[in-house]
């Protein structure tokens, strides 16, 4: 259906014309080609008087456009407080309750959009009129999730003032604190925790999302040292040795990202975790080596002497991993502890093969002096000397 005369008058904010058309019983709930009623249009263009006249004439305020957005949704999206105030002030309590619960095609009520747009005044207005601060949108996201996702710190405090639960879970079992950690934003985490403390609301630090990650796991995986430091003392120690869906423990994530302090703290809490295998069968030491994290390597090496010959799923020992990455200083330090130097990985490449691939003559000589065999062939029957030639 195309635009009616009432639609056109509304677009032009022609209040007198719109009022006359309504008195002439012009169809007030007709929709245009993209599903908008005159009220939807009036809310979008800020035609306050026309909004009022349409509601007085008993138009259907619950009708949404092609995206399912009602006039209230649209007023919020245009951040027009006056239109929001007019709509809520002109309808009955029963209609208001229905309107505040009305969701668009993404499952968002007007409050979700107000938080998304970051308009604190409108958020207050909607909640004061009965909007549910714990309502769930698409993927079970609450307004509090939206606030954390978009770093709306003042709105986090507003929402927590109206709710008893700071730990709503979305479809992936993530809470707002998970989203703050995903944002790599230690300031946001501090603000969230401060607001929860202010309103005496208990925060769950040990909740795992569908990937098996607590907020601390996420911070560790992101290499967000500042957030890890905040969350470390608050997260239950019992969660540290519990693997995620990939088989990684917290220490593996910290080792890969180079968070030496977090690795140190985990080791101090649970001394036997240095040898545990994670994703790909890698020990924390192998994680540090394969990701070139020299400081973490330095810390873990003396604690990992019992697993220097441990192989990952690619049959790499720590020595082979260091050689594969051409980390000469790591190779030298590992050799000081007399590992098996004649091992080979899944491609039958041994220590000398890797040194030869990188053209690392110093390490090649050191391996020869340590007794490494030169005649060992790989899966392609190539010896280290073939590669070096």
TrEMBL record:
<keyword id="KW-0677">Repeat</keyword>
<feature type="repeat" description="ANK">
    <location>
        <begin position="139"/>
        <end position="171"/>
    </location>
</feature>
<feature type="repeat" description="ANK">
    <location>
        <begin position="246"/>
        <end position="278"/>
    </location>
</feature>
<dbReference type="Pfam" id="PF00023">
    <property type="entry name" value="Ank"/>
</dbReference>
<dbReference type="Pfam" id="PF12796">
    <property type="entry name" value="Ank_2"/>
</dbReference>
<dbReference type="InterPro" id="IPR036770">
    <property type="entry name" value="Ankyrin_rpt-contain_sf"/>
</dbReference>
<feature type="repeat" description="ANK">
    <location>
        <begin position="347"/>
        <end position="371"/>
    </location>
</feature>
<keyword id="KW-0040">ANK repeat</keyword>
<feature type="repeat" description="ANK">
    <location>
        <begin position="106"/>
        <end position="138"/>
    </location>
</feature>
<feature type="repeat" description="ANK">
    <location>
        <begin position="314"/>
        <end position="346"/>
    </location>
</feature>
<dbReference type="InterPro" id="IPR002110">
    <property type="entry name" value="Ankyrin_rpt"/>
</dbReference>
<protein>
    <submittedName>
        <fullName>Uncharacterized protein</fullName>
    </submittedName>
</protein>
<feature type="repeat" description="ANK">
    <location>
        <begin position="67"/>
        <end position="88"/>
    </location>
</feature>
């Amino acid at each position: 259906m195309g635009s009616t005369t009432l639609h056109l008058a509304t677009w032009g904010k022609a209040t007198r014309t719109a009022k006359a058309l309504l008195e002439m019983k012009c169809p007030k709930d007709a929709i245009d080609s993209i599903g908008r009623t005159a009220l939807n249009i009036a809310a979008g263009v800020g035609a306050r008087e026309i909004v009022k006249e349409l509601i007085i004439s008993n138009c259907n305020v619950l009708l949404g456009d092609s995206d399912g957005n009602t006039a209230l949704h649209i007023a919020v999206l245009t951040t027009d407080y006056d239109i929001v105030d007019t709509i809520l002030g002109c309808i009955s309590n029963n209609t208001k309750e229905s309107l505040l619960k009305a969701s668009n095609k993404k499952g968002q009520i007007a409050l979700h959009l107000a938080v998304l747009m970051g308009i604190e005044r409108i958020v207050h207005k909607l909640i004061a009129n009965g909007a549910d601060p714990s309502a769930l949108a698409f993927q079970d996201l609450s307004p509090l999730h939206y606030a954390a996702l978009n770093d709306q710190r003042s709105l986090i405090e507003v929402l927590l003032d109206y709710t008893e639960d700071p730990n709503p879970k979305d479809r992936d079992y993530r809470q707002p604190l998970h989203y703050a950690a995903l944002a790599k934003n230690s300031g946001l985490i501090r603000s969230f925790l401060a607001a929860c403390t202010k309103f005496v609301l208990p925060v769950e630090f040990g909740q795992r999302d569908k990937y098996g990650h607590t907020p601390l796991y996420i911070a560790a995986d992101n290499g967000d040292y500042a957030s890890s430091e905040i969350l470390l003392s608050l997260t239950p120690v019992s969660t540290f040795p519990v693997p995620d869906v990939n088989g990684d423990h917290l220490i593996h994530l910290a080792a890969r990202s180079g968070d030496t302090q977090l690795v140190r703290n985990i080791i101090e809490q649970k001394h036997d975790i240095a040898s545990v295998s994670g994703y790909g069968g890698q020990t924390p030491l192998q994680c540090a080596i394969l990701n070139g994290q020299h400081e973490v390597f330095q810390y873990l090496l003396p604690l990992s002497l019992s697993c220097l010959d441990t192989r990952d799923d690619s049959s790499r020992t720590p020595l082979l991993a260091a050689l594969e990455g051409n980390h000469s200083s790591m190779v030298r330090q590992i050799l000081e502890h007399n590992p098996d130097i004649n091992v080979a990985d899944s491609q039958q490449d041994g220590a000398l093969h890797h040194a030869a691939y990188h053209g690392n003559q110093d390490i090649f000589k050191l391996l020869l002096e340590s007794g490494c065999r030169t005649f060992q062939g790989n899966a392609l029957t190539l010896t280290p000397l073939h590669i070096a030639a």
